[in-house]
Structure formats: C-alpha cells, structure tokens
Amino acid sequence: MxxxxxxxxxxxxxxxxxxxxxxxxxxxxxxxxxxIPHTVKELPLNDFDESSYQFISCYRKKHxxxxxxxxxxxxxxxxxxxxxxxxxxxxxxxYSHLGGYNAFSFDIHDFLVVGENQIVVKVDSTxxxxxxPFGYVVDYLTYGGIYREVELISVPNEHLTNLRIVxxxxxxxxxxxxxIIDFENNNNKKLTAxxxxxxxxxxxxxxxxVTSTNNMVLNGIIENGFLWDIDNPNLYEFKxxxxxxxxxxxxxxxxxxxxxAEFTPYGFLLNEKKLKIRGLNRHQAYPYVGYAMPKSMQIExxxxxxxxxxxxxxxxxxxxxxxxxxxxxxELGLLVFTEAPGWQHIGDExxxxxxxxxxxxxxxxxxxxxxxxxxxxxxxxxxxxxxLYIETNKIAKQxxxxxxxxxxxxxxxxxxFEDVYTYNDFNYDGKSKPLCSPISVTxxxxxxxxxxxNGHMFPTKRFDSASRKLEHALRHAEVLNKAYSxxxxxxxxxxxxxxxxxHMDFGSGDRICYHGVSDMFRIPKLAAAVYASQSKNEPYLExxxxxxxGDYDRNTLGKFYAFxxxxxxxxYKNDKYINTFYSNNQNLSNLPHPVIEITDLIGKLIxxxxxxxxxxxxxxxxxxxxxxxxxxxxxxxxxxxxxxxxLKKHHISLDEAYNEFGKYLTTWGEKNSIFTFIGLINNxxxxxxxxxxxxxxxxxxxxxxxxxxxxxxxxxxLVRITAISEENNILPYAMHGLHLSTTGNIxxxxxxxxxLIGGAIGVYIKxxxxxxxxxxxxxxxxxKSVDFIIE
Length: 791
Ligand code: GAL
Known about the structure:
Blueprint: E1 3-6, E2 11-14, E3 32-34, E4 56-65, E5 73-78, E6 81-82, E7 84-89, E8 92-98, E9 104-107, E10 115-124, E11 145-146, E12 150-155, E13 160-166, E14 175-183, E15 191-199, E16 202-211, E17 215-222, E18 236-244, E19 247-256, E20 261-264, E21 267-270, E22 273-274, E23 277-281, H1 295-308, E24 313-316, H2 323-332, E25 335-339, H3 349-366, E26 372-376, H4 386-399, E27 404-409, E28 420-424, H5 438-442, E29 448-452, H6 466-483, E30 491-494, E31 500-501, E32 512-513, H7 526-532, E33 541-543, E34 560-564, E35 568-573, E36 576-582, E37 596-598, H8 605-609, H9 614-630, H10 637-649, H11 654-665, E38 675-681, E39 684-691, E40 697-703, E41 707-708, E42 716-725, E43 737-744, E44 746-749, E45 753-755, E46 760-767, E47 771-779, E48 784-790
Parallel strand pairs: 23-24, 23-30, 24-25, 25-26, 26-27, 27-28, 28-29, 41-48
Antiparallel strand pairs: 1-12, 2-3, 2-4, 4-10, 5-9, 5-12, 6-11, 7-8, 7-10, 13-14, 14-17, 15-16, 15-18, 18-19, 20-21, 21-22, 31-32, 33-34, 34-37, 35-36, 35-38, 38-39, 40-42, 42-46, 43-45, 43-47, 44-46, 47-48
Helix pairs in contact: 1-2, 3-4, 6-7, 9-10
The structure holds beta-D-galactopyranose.
Beta-D-galactopyranose is lined by residues 139, 317, 380-381, 410, 424, 452, 455-456, 495, 515.
C-alpha cells in the first residue's frame, strides 16, 4: 500500500555550492540543520539588497531504506523549490526541474541501496533568464529554497499516477461524473480500480472495474447531489483503490465539488446564477522568510481573504500557489483565478518552452479544485505573441475542456485567443472616471474581467495621514462601484491583498510595495473596510476617521465615511444625538452596501443646547458645516449673510461667536469627547463604535492559533499586535519599541527587537518540538504573553 513519509525535518543546508557536495562522503559538518519549508536567506522586513538571496545552495539529507522498501517504487515529491533544482541520489544525477511554483516528483528506486542513502539537492535561486518570470524586471521577489514540503511516497510497481474527476452536467439533480484513473501497469496485470465517494464521511457511491491496461474511466451518478458554491462549499471525497485480486496495491483520495462556472459578456455565472466578482490579488510572500511558510499560514491567508476581507475571488498573482492555500479556497468557498508564472517579459525559445511546460504542470496539478474557475495562460501583462498564446490556450483546452481560459493584459485591443479578456485597469487616478468601458478595451463583445486596479496608482502605508488612507479606501470603493454598475464587468480584482517585498525598481525605495489593503502582516488598512463592508454575514461598521481634527489640513475633519453593511448610521457626540446618515442616498450606490458619507457633525446639537432654535439654528448650522468641511476662508455670501444676520439678532460679536460655536467644530476644552456611531439594520441597532482621542493605550494581542501541530513539519502562528485605545481603536501613529522573547518549544521568526509600525506589527513564531511554548512581549505599553500548546 501507499506509504507517505514527510521529509521535512533535519536537512543539512549551506548557502553555497560545490560539485564535491554531491558526493556521499562529502564532509558536511559545517552545514546548518534546517527544516522545510526553508528559505535560503532570512531577510529584514525592508531595506535590503535582493541580490542577497540569489545564489546556488545545497541541501543534503540521509535516508534509510530497507530491503522491503526497495521492492517498491520510491517517489520523491517536492511541492515547490525556487527557482531551479537538480536532485542527486547517492552521487548520481536523478532529476531536474525548472521553475519555482509547480510540484515535481520522480521515482528514485533505481538509485537506492539497502541502508543509508544520500539525497542532495542543488537549488539555484538566481534569476535565470530561461525561467519565467525572469529576463527583465519583476515587481515582486522570488526568494529561494525548498520552500514547500517534501514527501517520499512508497508504492508498489503497479500504482495510481493520476485521478481526474469531471462532471459535464453538474446542475442536474442527480449529478453525473467521470472519474478518469491512470496507473502504472507495465506488465499488463489484471487490476481492479475501485471507486468510493464520500460526503461528510458517509459513502454515497461506489463501483469498480477490471482492466489489463493502465487507465480506466469509472462513471457514476450522485443522487440528489449537492452543489459547491461560495456559500455552501460542498465537497465530495473520491477515493480510488487499486487492487490485484483482493490485494490492495494503492489508493489515492481527491476532493471534488459539483459546480458550473461561466464568464459571459453579460457577467459571471456560478451554477447559472449571476455573481459579481469582488476580489483581491495575493502574493504568497511573507515577511523575513519570503515564500517559506507551512500549511497553517497558507490556510490563514485564505481565511483572511474570505472571512475578514469578504472577497469572493482571489487571483494567485502571478504564479500557482501552495496546495494548502487552494485546498482552503475549496473548503471555504473562495473562487480562484490561478495563472502560470511570468511578469511582462517574454524571453527566447527556451524560455517559451519552459513557460508552456509550466502551463501544463499548473493545470494537471490543480485540475480537481472546484474553487479554480479560470486558468491564466498568458504571462501577466506581456505583449501579444500570437504563436505562443495560441499554443498555451491549446494546451489548456486539451488538458481541461471544462474550464475557461484568460490571460492578463495591460493594453487595449490585444489579440484574444482565450475565453475571457482579463485586463489590468489602472485608469482611475482619483479624478478620472473609474474603469474603462469593456468594449473600449476588448473591441468586441467578449467576457470581461478586471484583474487589477489601484495598486501603484496610490501606494498607501498604514502610517500615512488620515486623508491619504481615506483616499486609498475611496479609490477602491469607486472602482468596485463602477464594476457593480454594469453586467459587462464580470467583476474586479483589486491590487492587492497585502503589501509585499519587491525589487529595487519598484516600491517605496525600501523594497516594499505598499499596495495592499493590509500590511505585510495581514493587518487591515482602512481600504480593507471597503471590501469587508460588502459582506452580508454579520453587521460590519468601520469609520474612516479617528476624529483627530488636527490630523487634517486646516484642522477641519471634512467629510468622512462609514464603511458598513448597515442601512444607516446614527451619530452622537458625548451621548447627544447629532444625526442619522442613510445608505440609500449615497453616491457609491451600485455597491451592495454603499459607503455612507457623514457630512455633518453639528446636526441637532444646536437645537439641543436650547439657545438657538428654528431658522436661527439652521443658519448657524449651515455656516458651521461649511467651515467644518472647507475651512474659514471664502465662505459664500448666501451662507455668510444669514449667519451674520442671526448673530446680530442675538447681539453677539464675531469673537463671541468664535468662542460659542467653536465647540461644534473642534473638541477644544472638552474633557473627553466621545463620538458614537451606531449601525442600524431595519431600524434596529446592530453595532456600535466609539471614537475619541485616547487617554489609555494598551497592547492588543491576537494570535491566529494557540494550538499548534508539530507533525509533518513545524507549525507557525502569526501574532497580530496592535496598540489600541480604551475604545479599541488602533493608534495609527504608535511606533513603540517591542522586545520579544520565547520560552519552551517555539522560536521567533525575525528579530527580537521590533517596533509598532503605524500602531501595528505582526510576529511569527514557529514550533521546534511538541509540548508548549510561550511568547513574551515587552513594551512601554505593558507586557503581554501568549501561550501555545503544541501537539
Ligand atoms: C501591475 C502588475 C502587478 C503589480 C501592479 C502594481 O502592472 O501586474 O504585478 O506590479 O502593477 O500596481
């Protein structure tokens, strides 16, 4: 039977390479002991030289094989090594693979001896011109190392090699499917393939057949089967067992979901129902360790996108990503547009051959995932190359006739061989109209999806001013609003989920592109609220301002906004009612949940104070509201004259007015001004936020998980640390120092000396063994600790 052994612990690694290292008896005592996922070089958060990880390095590992083991095939599987790999077993060359993003596996049986065997992996992390995406510039880093898991799979000579499930009519009540099974059967033995289908651990279908060939199609019907969709991501488990007579030789399982997905010129249809795509692009990179993060962090990103950012699609820009991530998208109901590696540049013939191979690897390795609804088979933003892209489209169609293809362009009128015109639309600069019309880009009526927007048009750091963060959020809202305005847009995928490290040619000069709606630690910026507020699950309310008047030009707060899925927001100041603002009369009204503009902080306050009522109160309010939005200069006559008339009527001078009405425009002199925002759904109060200038500052600690698993490899938890006020609001300019330390069986990733960046930072810890671990955080804002149980 199939036996899978994880080969992740205790590799020997050195950040250089010499041909002698391939030999069995090479003295590797100066190598470091490392675990996989591994990066060839840990990096600082920013301000580093990207050439520092671009070298050739060597990994060595000894493994024992018994006589019985050698009766079987021994398949060595690498899930991801960046960027080019050669594997040697006992000094002999066994396999090579180009490209950092697809898995590869091969049988090492013929190289093995009984007893100790030496595996050596030569990893080239340089930017080789024959390997996409390299050859010119690239706006992201590709890091280096055996950064995804490694397995040894022991199987008999007759074993399963591929399992593919297809349903050509998933919308029928009784769901038909074909299960296409490939296996090794060189001696034409009479073999049985048995299929069992499980739903919620219960068997719902089984059948079997016999053959002497090396493939078989088993078809069947799941009666009253469930569909997979984004709200109910129902997954069936297909288990295929290969037998010789009664003797079980091998088995594999694959998850599958029944669903139809179609991009049309009039919108995207999931199971024939219209769904507007609201997505974000994801790079698989993390601070310090680049790509090298285990399963839990891959799953956390999918959760973050689905549950915190509430998007319905992720684009795995610009390469295939971890199986753990895609599995989580299947489980959570998050649609995926995945694409083969590349960035703008098309190299020579060798490069193109490698690209085509990467396209087929991507499709073959990801074919059963219901979450994937589109293959990207064109190098992101590359120029037209008809021959290449006719071929990649053909490859995709031959391997998978059930999915549509796309290829991301950055120019109009490109030759379209794929099904969907996928376009990066950076047209919006805050003033122009958001998004080009589809027909102006495609020149004919074809399915159309915006695959990037915003990004470099408005980089925004979490420690930027309130006005900039607001504009960042509103720009995302404007584009989404436009995408919702017409069925011709299947949707829009924003750039991007999180800030990321990049080459010197890009970013803010510190090797970071601050393009994310969250920072590198996946801590949301204000723009994240635009996405989150479009969800329908729980009441959601975020206010765009910290109500710090002095953070704005002229000390005037101006318009600010509620990002919310509520129908209305009631506003109070120090428990006095100001006004209610409704979602149904807003500018961004195409959004499922329009952004609510809060235009007035005076509202009913003047009347409530009692001295001025009726017309007088109205005139004063109008003038003060103008000043609150635009400052004292150039008050229009039609506002100023009635205001002065009222002052005269009540015998107050300008100086007196200044003192008397200042309290409506600022919080000067008030002991503690608290603004309260209450979200209403169907007139019921469902959520509440208080905003005030903080007096108490605390550290808030949110670990992603405190129950970790040190199993197939080490585990990682992210601890999000924020400085918060007594009202639980993040202090946007808190930059306090932190000292981090650990006890027990965990260690820190990154430096023990950190500081909050714009009120927030993330800390990653990783397990070193089972047991327990504790993270201590010391700072001027207090000391905290997090305990972990490790199983
Ligand atoms: C696009 C590119 C992305 C990223 C983005 C920044 O042109 O496809 O990878 O660089 O710009 O806005």
